[in-house]
Amino acid sequence: MGDHDMESISMQDATTHDGRKVPPGGTLGVFGGGQLGRMFGIAARRLGYRFAVFSDDKDGPASHVADHAVCAAYDDEEAIASFVRGVDAVTFEFENVPAIAGEIASKYVPVRPAGSLLHTVQNRQREKDGLTGLGLPVAEYWPVRNEGECRAAAAALPGGGVLKTASFGYDGKGQKRIASGMELEGAWESLGKAPCVLEALVPFVEEISVVAARGQDGAIAVYEPFSNHHENHILDVTMCPRVLGPETQGEVDRIARRALEGFDVVGVLCIELFLLADGSILVNEIAPRPHNSGHLTVDSHVTCQFQNQVRAVAGLPLGSTERIGRPAAMANLLGDLWADGEPNWAAALAMPGVWLHLYGKAEARKGRKMGHITAVGDTPEEAASRARAARAALVDRS
Ligand SMILES: Nc1ncnc2c1ncn2[C@@H]1O[C@H](COP(=O)(O)OP(=O)(O)O)[C@@H](O)[C@H]1O
Ligand SMILES: [Mg+2]
Fold it and tell me: Are residues 300 and 162 in the same domain?
């Protein structure tokens, strides 16, 4: 598979992988076995690559489409070294891959984006410090790691806030809303007094995201912004385009470019944004990989977010981020839809302008992302109502 052997690569080479390209026919590896790895793998195969997965889950969605799948712990140094010797470049599909995996991998092959970015985003405090350091706007925030910081943050918070654990939060897990600083201590206790970040509550009018890619040559490609609607803190529906005023759009582009360059991303980055009533923007959080809100690009854009990740990781030129045609929307399919038995696939597929994507997960649990539906329409709203209608048809037993 790989075209290099271990002996010829020394530690020193870890910094000289820069510029190495992987032409089609080579093998791209991914750490993480979920749906994002699966869609990366499908995109890689479309471009003629072989695809290898390293995951601690034997039967994950990515392994189903892989040429080669390794199941081992993310800190199993020997297994990681052996895996990366069989690939030409490697990326990751979720943030909580232990940094050690990236460090070991980088001794052998290019890791794109670099493992140091994982280290930054694995901790909300570091992530926010990084964003602020780049001059990017975030909500006011305070560290809450000990009693003293807890008192200081409680006193400084101007109104309501959101307390978030610094590590391992996703889909709203590890978060507590508070109405004022007086509730901070109790909220922190309920999070087990884990290291946290307190954020001022943002009175946003809408949540949007921007997905962008940066190639090995420094070229940047930015998708149009997506409008996101959450249910129970889990992304429910994404719509595009979200046409913003020129100033706001300019700010979104500036933020995307600054973040890609400032964090030296080679790969795909999603930035979750809060849109405020006056048209200003705050960064909520970043994910250095394709994002759930970008799934609709697979059906509606010239180059989807996964193919751009493949191109960036392989050192190929990025593809156009333009939408091909009509407005589009995506609705997530959570395990809840399986509660009364197998969903009615035929009913959804019979609807026009609708695509069904399933991740091949064996067990449908409540809140688990099992797949998504994309749809097009004359307006983003019409596309969204089609995607929602197709989803509703899955469980219509009448
Ligand atoms: N400071 C904030 N003010 C208002 N709402 C927030 C704030 N932070 C998070 N939220 C809400 O909670 C959701 C989840 O928070 P986020 O930081 O994105 O964590 P996760 O890692 O779970 O996605 C956001 O999409 C938003 O709806
Ligand atoms: Mg989020």
Answer: no
Sign of dihedral through CA atoms 364, 293, 175, 75?
positive
User: How far apart are the CA of 181 and the centre of ligand 1, in A?
Assistant: 18
For residue 298, give Cα distances in angstroms to 267, 322, 362. Answer: 17, 12, 23
How remote is the CA of residue 174 from the centroid of ligand 2, in Å?
A: 12
The number of the ligand nearest the C-alpha atom of 270 reads: 2
Q: Please indicate, yes or no, whether residues 242 and 344 belong to a single structural domain of this protein.
A: yes
Q: How far is the CA of 235 from the centre of ligand 2 (A)?
A: 8
- What is the amino acid identity at position 86? G
**Could you say which of 111, 132, 159 is where a domain stops?**
111
CA 163 – ligand 1 centroid, Å: 10
User: Considering the domain boundaries, does residue 1 fall inside one?
Assistant: no
Length of the chain counted residue by residue: 398
Chain center to CA of 85 = 26
User: Contact, 83 vs 280, CB < 8 A?
Assistant: no
The residue type found at 144 is: V
221 and 369 belong to one structural domain:
yes
Closest ligand 1 atom, CA of 272?
Answer: 18
- Which ligand 1 atom sits closest to the C-alpha of 174? 22
Q: In the chain, which residue ranges form alpha helices assigned H by DSSP?
A: 35-46, 77-84, 99-106, 115-121, 124-133, 147-156, 184-190, 246-262, 297-300, 305-314, 345-349, 380-394
Domain that holds residue 364: 206-394
Place of tokens 């001022």: 200
Q: Which atom of ligand 1 is nearest to the CA of 204?
A: 4
pLDDT in tens, 321-359: 999 989 999 999 999 999 999 999 999 999 998 999 999
Strand partners, 219: none
Alpha-carbon separation of residue 320 from 49, 223, 245, 329, 361 (angstroms): 20, 9, 22, 19, 31
| Residue where the block lists tokens 């997905």 | 211
Domain count, the chain: 3
If you take atom 20 of ligand 1, which residue's CA is the nearest one? 170
Q: Give 180-192 pLDDT, tens digit per residue.
A: 999 999 999 999 9
Pocket around ligand 1 at a 6 A CB cut-off:
139, 162, 169-172, 199, 201-202, 207, 230, 233, 272, 284-285
The structure's pTM equals 0.94
- Same domain assignment for residues 176 and 270: no
